[in-house]
Amino acid sequence: MPMSQSTFTILLGGELSLTERLRDAIEDSRFIAADGGMRHAAALGITPELWVGDFDSTPADLADAFPDVPKQPYPAAKAATDGEIAVAEAIARGARRLILAGALGGERSDHALQHLLSAVSLAEEGFDLLLTSGKEEAVPLVAGTIELDLPKGSLFSVPGFSELRGLAIENARYPLADFHLPFGSSRTISNVAEGKVRFSLRSGRAIVLARPYDLSGV
Question: What count of Cα atoms within 13 Å lies in the side-chain half-sphere of residue 1?
Answer without folding.
Answer: 9
